[in-house]
Specification:
The chain is α+β, with helices and mostly antiparallel strands. The chain folds into 2 domains: 97 residues, Serine-tRNA synthetase, tRNA binding domain (Helix Hairpins, Orthogonal Bundle); 303 residues, 2-Layer Sandwich (BirA Bifunctional Protein, domain 2). It is built from 12 helices and 17 strands. Strands 1-10-11-12-15-9-8-4 form an 8-stranded mixed beta sheet. It has a 3-stranded mixed beta sheet with strand order 7-13-14, with no helix packed on it.
C-alpha cells in the first residue's frame, strides 16, 4: 500500500515512478478523491460541532423551542449520515486504486519492460563439462523409476509428480540441509506455519486483490499459500514490535500452491513449473534504515546454499518491468541446467520496503512513535528446482546421480543414487 502523505507531497515523483513500472499517472485522481474526502471530514466535523451546540441549548429552551431544536438536530444527523456514506464510498475508491498499484521501484533498479533488461551482477562457479549429452532431470528420474509424472497426471492432472525412493529422500535431505544452514549459520528462526490463510493475509503480502487468479481457493474461503512468505510475513499482522526484537528473521519449509494461470505451454515437461512444489523461504522484518543491507545479507544466505552444493549460478538485478508486485528491488538467483544449456531461476530475494507493512499494519515502537516496518522475502531455496539442478549437474553417463558432499550425511551415507 502506498503512503497517501507521500503522494500529497510528491505527486510528480509518484507518477514518474509509476511510469518506470509502465503505468499511467494516478496522482491527480488519487488527490482529487483525497481532497473530497477531507472536505467531507471538515463538513462532518462542522455539523457535529453545530449539533453539540444546539444540544447544549435544550436546558434553556421552552417546549416550543425544544421541538424546533429537535428538528434541527434530526436534520443535522441526516446530513452527517449522508456524508458518512459518501466518505465510505470515497475511502473504498482510494483504497481500490492504492491497493491495485505496485510498489515503486528503487532508484538502483534498471529500467525495462522484461527480463531482457535485467542486469547481471555476478556469475559464480564452473559450468560442468560432460563427455556425453546430459539428460534432462525428468528423463533421468523416469529412468531411475523415481519420478512418476504419468501416475501423478492420472491422480491430480498436469503439473504434478510423484517423487519416490531416493528422490523423495533427496528432496527431504535438501530441505533439511537448507533449514539447518539458515538456522544454525544465519540465525533465522524456524517456523512451521499454516498452509491455509485468510483474505487479510494474502492482501497483506500483495497477492490480493490483483492476483487472485494465480491462487488456489478452498470452499471454506481459505487460500492455499503460494509461498511461505505469506504466513511468515503475516506473523506481524496488526502488531507493534519493539526495537530489541528487530530484525525478525524467519524460515520455513512448506509446500506451495500456484495455479500457473499464465504459463500455458511453458515448461510442460518435468518439475520446473508445477501446481504444487516445496520451498525453504526466508523472511525478514527490519527497521527502514536496515532494509538495504538486509537484502544483501539475505541474498548471501541464499547463494551460500548453491556455493556449498557446488552448483554454478548467476545473480541478476531485475528491471522495473520484471519485478514482482510488492517488490521495490529484487535479485534473482539463476542456477545452471545442463539439459537446457542455460541458467534458470531458483530464487528471488526482494526488498518490499514498507509496502507490505502498510497493508498489514505492521509497525515497531521507536522514540519517534510507531513506524512501519520494512519487509523482505526470498527463497532459500526452491527445493524442487534445487533437486533438478543436482540431478542434472551431478549425473553420470550410466544415468546415476552422485550425491553432493554436503548432503551425504542427510542421505544416510548414500553417495550415489542408482537403480542398484
Amino acid at each position: 500500500m502506498h503512503d497517501i502523505n507521500y503522494i500529497r507531497n510528491h505527486p510528480d515523483d509518484f507518477d514518474q515512478f509509476l511510469k518506470l513500472r509502465f503505468l499511467e499517472p494516478h496522482s491527480k485522481k488519487i488527490l482529487n478523491l483525497d481532497k473530497s474526502k477531507r472536505e467531507i471530514l471538515t463538513s462532518s466535523q462542522d455539523l457535529r460541532s453545530k449539533r453539540k451546540f444546539i444540544s447544549s441549548q435544550f436546558s434553556h429552551a421552552n417546549d416550543s423551542e425544544k421541538l424546533t431544536l429537535q428538528e434541527d438536530v434530526h436534520l443535522i444527523k441526516e446530513k452527517i449520515d449522508s456524508l458518512e456514506k459518501d466518505l465510505l464510498k470515497i475511502d473504498y475508491e482510494i483504497n481500490l486504486i492504492l491497493s491495485s498499484l505496485p510498489n515503486l521501484p528503487d532508484t538502483e533498479v534498471p529500467f525495462g519492460k522484461d527480463e531482457k533488461n535485467n542486469k547481471l551482477i555476478k556469475t559464480i562457479g564452473k559450468i560442468p563439462i560432460f563427455d556425453f549429452i546430459p539428460l534432462a532431470h525428468y528423463v533421468l528420474g523416469e529412468n531411475l523409476k523415481m519420478m512418476d509424472f504419468d501416475q501423478a497426471s492420472k491422480v491430480s492432472g498436469a503439473r504434478f509428480v510423484y517423487l519416490k525412493k531416493d528422490f523423495a529422500r533427496l528432496e527431504r535431505a535438501i530441505a533439511n540441509f537448507m533449514l539447518d544452514t539458515h538456522t544454525k549459520e544465519y540465525g533465522y528462526s524456524e517456523v512451521n506455519p499454516p498452509n491455509l490463510v485468510k483474505d487479510s493475509a494474502v492482501y497483506g503480502t500483495g497477492q490480493l486483490p490483483k492476483f487472485s487468479d494465480d491462487l488456489f481457493k478452498t470452499n471454506s474461503n481459505h487460500w492455499l499459500i503460494p509461498t511461505a512468505e505469506v504466513p511468515l510475513t503475516n506473523l506481524h499482522l496488526d502488531t507493534i514490535s519493539t526495537e530489541k526484537n528487530l530484525p525478525a528473521r524467519y524460515t520455513a519449509w512448506t509446500p506451495c500452491y500456484r495455479l500457473e494461470a499464465g504459463s500455458a505451454g511453458r515448461d510442460t515437461r518435468g518439475m520446473i513449473r508445477q501446481h504444487q512444489f516445496s520451498k525453504v523461504e526466508l523472511v525478514s522484518l527490519v527497521k527502514p534504515e536496515d532494509s538495504n543491507d538486509e537484502l544483501e545479507r539475505m541474498l548471501n544466505c541464499a547463494t551460500s546454499i548453491l556455493d556449498l552444493l557446488q552448483l554454478s549460478y548467476r545473480v541478476m538485478l531485475l528491471s522495473s518491468g520484471d519485478m514482482g508486485f510488492s517488490a521495490k528491488k529484487t535479485y534473482d538467483i539463476e542456477v545452471w541446467l545442463p539439459s537446457e544449456s542455460k541458467y534458470r531461476e531458483i530464487s528471488s530475494c526482494s526488498n518490499c520496503g514498507d509496502f507490505q507493512a502498510r497493508r498489514m499494519n505492521a509497525k515497531y515502537k521507536s522514540v519517534d512513535g510507531n513506524i512501519h516496518l520494512h519487509t523482505l522475502n526470498g527463497s532459500g531455496l526452491a527445493v524442487g528446482r534445487t533437486l533438478i539442478a543436482i540431478v542434472e549437474n551431478y549425473q553420470s553417463k550410466d544415468g546415476s546421480i552422485t550425491v553432493p558432499d554436503v548432503l551425504i550425511s542427510y542421505m544416510g551415507g548414500k553417495k550415489v543414487i542408482s537403480l542398484k
